[in-house]
Amino acid sequence: MTRTVYVNGEYLPETEAKVSIFDRGFLMADGVYEVTTVLDGKLIDFDGHAKRLARSLNELEMKHPVTEEELLAIHRKLVEVNEVEEGLVYLQVTRGAADRDFAYPKDAEPTLVLFTQKKQAVNSPAAKTGISVISLPDIRWGRRDIKTVQLLYPSMGKMAAKAQGADDAWLVEDGFVTEGTSNNAYIVKDGVIITRNLGNEILHGITRAAVLRFAAEAQIKIEERPFTIEEAKAADEAFVTSATTFVLPVTKIDGEAVGTGQVGPIAARLREIYLEESRKTAV
Ligand code: PLP
């Protein structure tokens, strides 16, 4: 079935959707994005993703193409017409098409594109076995709090992990883990969850915010601070969070088992709580 996608106010078959070759997203990665998960045909954490999108746009002095209400309506319509029960909605805003120039154009209209992807996420086998990660230097730019489409280094990181027979990479800067290629990173030691504090160095994960809130409600202690790969290897558990993977256990780092090498109880419990609670507030 051909998907229906959204481009600048129009719902079109995916084969007919077009964006200009002068679009600054294409020429300069001058764009931001969001990925919202769909479960039971409903959007998970929509409000958080919409707020973070607004923040990314503001940080880059980019125009907001539509209001938050309009954005929700577009998401809902795409989920409905494409009959997505489980999957995601991808959204991208760029500064729009203009003659190539490093300076921001004055009169360009932003480009807004959304499409859906069906994907089984809840019953992922990796949730039962855990994933393996390798460590890599974090050589991304310094404003990782802005969710831009500059994703080449994270892609290279995933490929480096695959080349070593691992699933993903944890990025390390000045001796400390920042985050995963496309997720936030956590360890658990003596019942305490440790995860990098917010700043420009990491993306402020929407799933991170929800999971830390649920952990606090479940009386689990949290320390928001940097940690090293050595500390992670000596931890009892490790896991990552993202909109599309929820809470995913990490059982191996650079070839060494974390804790027992099995999925840990805190990661497993947080995954359950996250799925249960976020389904309740899905829209
Ligand atoms: N960190 C990075 C670099 C990411 O790309 C992502 C998601 O794409 C995350 C963290 C997790 O963010 P969220 O929970 O909002 O999906």
UniProtKB/TrEMBL annotation:
Cofactor: pyridoxal 5'-phosphate
Pathway where this protein functions: Amino-acid biosynthesis; L-leucine biosynthesis; L-leucine from 3-methyl-2-oxobutanoate: step 4/4; Amino-acid biosynthesis; L-valine biosynthesis; L-valine from pyruvate: step 4/4; Amino-acid biosynthesis; L-isoleucine biosynthesis; L-isoleucine from 2-oxobutanoate: step 4/4
InterPro entries reported for this sequence: Aminotrans_IV, Aminotrans_IV_CS, Aminotransferase-like, BCAT-like_C, BCAT-like_N, Class-IV_PLP-Dep_Aminotrnsfr
Classification via CDD domains: D-AAT_like
This enzyme's EC code(s): 2.6.1.42
Gene3D superfamilies membership: 3.30.470.10, D-amino Acid Aminotransferase, subunit A, domain 2 (3.20.10.10)
Entry-linked NCBIfam families: PRK06680.1
Protein name per its UniProtKB record: Probable branched-chain-amino-acid aminotransferase
Organism: Donghicola mangrovi
